[in-house]
Structure formats: C-alpha cells, structure tokens
Amino acid sequence: MKKYPYVILGCSVAAVAAIEGIRSEDREGRILVVGEEPCRAYGRPLISYYLLGETDLARMDYRPEEFYEEHGADLRLGVRAEAVDPKRKTVTFSDGEKIGYGKLLVATGSRPFDPPIEGIERVKERFSFMTKADALALEKVLSPEKRVLIVGAGLIGLKCFEGIAARVKSAAVVDLADRILPSVLDHTGAEMVQKALEARGAAFYLADAVAKFDGNTAYLKSGKELPFDLLVTAVGVRPNAELVKEAGGEVRRGIAADACGRTSLPDIYAAGDCAESFDAVSGENRVLALLPNANMQGCIAGINMAGGKAKFENAVAFNSIGFFGTHVMTAGVYEGEAYTEHTERSYKALFYKEGVLKGFILINLPERAGIYLKLLRERIPLSEVDFTALKTSPAWSAFPPAVRKRNFAAEV
Question: Which of 98, 153, 276, 400 pairs with 215 at a CA distance of 20 to 30 A?
C-alpha cells in the first residue's frame, strides 16, 4: 500500500491553498490530491461567466497546469474517496485502491440539494448549477427557443440566470422567500438588484413555491402554472461531510474544525465548503461557503499539517458579486442600528451594535469596502474612530494615528 505524508481529498480552491501552505513549511514531503471531478481546481464562480462568453475553460483553472508538479503534488482525478480509517490512517477510493497518509485534509466541498417536489424526478431536462460539468451540460441544450425555470433566487440561481439570459427565450425564477438573495441582501438592496435583473428579462415569482411538476409544467402553490423546457434547481447546498462523520468525527452543519483546521480526529483536517469556520461577527461556528474563506482555511490547514503554527480566527461572511454591471458587496450580519444612503442607482447600509460594526451592504458604490471589512474582522471599537466620517466617506484618515499604527501598519 502506498503512503503519502500528505493526502488532500478534493481538488478545490481549499486544496490549492493547502498545497501552498504545506510548501511554506515543508519543501519535500510528497502530496497526493484526489478529486472526484475529472478536472483540476477551477474557480466555481466563473461558470456563469463561461456561459456569458466572458471567459473560457482554460482561464477557469485556479492555478496553471504546471502548478501541481512544481509543488510536488500528484493528482488523481475522477476518483471518489469512499472511506477514511483514522486508526489505520488510510483512505479507500471508488476504484478499490487504498492509500495511507501521514496528515489528511478533507476539502470535499458541497453538493446541491434536490428539493423533494412531487414529479421532479420525471423532469427530463433538469440541471444543477454548481460545477463546470453542470455549465457544460446546460450549454448543450440552451437555445433561443427554450423557456427556463430556475427554482431558487439565491446566488447560484441568479448567477445561472445571468449566464443564460441572452441565450434563451425566457427565464422564470421561483423562490419561497419574499425577496431575492434573502441571505445576502435586505429588502431595499434586494429590490434594487431585482429591478436590474428584470430589465434583462427575469420574471420573478417570490413568496411562492413549486407544489408539483407534471411533465414540463410547474404548478405553484399560488395556483399559477409555469410551462418550461429546462429546469435548474438552485435551492441550496449540503456540505460533503460524510467521510468524517462515518469515521467517527464531529460533524454539525459542517465538519467541526478549530482555528488551525483540525477536526476531532487525529491528523485529519478540514477546509472549504464542507467545514465550519468561526464567524468573527456572529460569534458562531458555521459554514461560510465563500471562495476567500476556503482559500484561507486551506492555507491555514496546510501550514499546520506541515508542522507550522497558524490560525484563522477572523472569518467573515463577505460577498462581492455582480449582475449585468450592478455590483454588490456585503458582509457580516444585519442587526442593530442602521445608517443608510439610497439613490436610484446606489445603496449603502451600515449596521452597528454594541459599539462595533456588524455588517454592511454596498450597491454600485466605488467605496473602499476594505475599510469596513477591516472594522468587521478586527472588531475595532467605533469609539476609536471617526465613525461619522466613515459613514459617508470611508478613508484611513478617520482613524487616529495610534489606531492606524496598531491596526493598519500594512496599509499606511
């Protein structure tokens, strides 16, 4: 049986960062990366831009092909990890091979959740929108005559709409929530983005849900009937945490991991969308399925796997997304008092409570969001800054010299 000092399950953004983290401490130990998808790590947020024609398959790669060889990492793609034995320190794969490990990283990401709707299993042209394979499969059937139904008005569903809007006859979006992007925007921000999407042809059916499918017709709970040719389900994801759970490790909403990336199992780490992080704003451990978070988790885990010492203790739910030129940046939670600025084209909302910034929403504003993000991550007391100035015009000058020296040495 072959054994590697480092084995990484999942050829993902977190895996790439872990390779770099390992190599910052250990230049020699061989790394094995095993991915279920038959391709190297790529930027999942780019799949909508691929359908838009704004990128191609080659440019979607998260690192160039030679990255893995240069970093002493062997790739095994198109293979699934079936079981982990933490006592014998082995992983068994779908092709029957068993590999030993010194340190193991589980970076297996997440999978789409299929809603239990009557008749959905009989819809022939049904797609998810999470992977490169999903985008390629959908691309094959897109045409100007097709009517598309998207179930889910979250990030995945709306990015799917952006990718296909110009390539289909019509697109309807159904969601149980009363607004789009309910986990990302408040009502004011959601209304702005919805108008921008409606201008591109989106038809929204909100505070509603599909009760059943009958062939190519969706029957909504409101009584409306929506005929369609293609169905995309984007109602949520589930962390791929079963390997750790079945091996006896602690799993909550995702794999429980500490600030070093360690799970409850010896020499097993977790990072990315399958693992929880400590949210510095909410003060809770939760899954933050965001690319920057996966990158940081992976890097920290890699450093610690190789004997270094590093912690990731300031994770924040931060989104930077765009829809047809409408740019949205959000972070944190929306609780406490709110300062808002609202024009026809832009929107700013800052949320603060108990003397610290808790969250923000910026739409179509060329603001220095990094300043607000720093306030969130570091939980800098607003009493130490000129928050009145920061509300209207974020600038480092709003921080007293002593605070700038202590917290912003790298920026000033």
Answer: 153
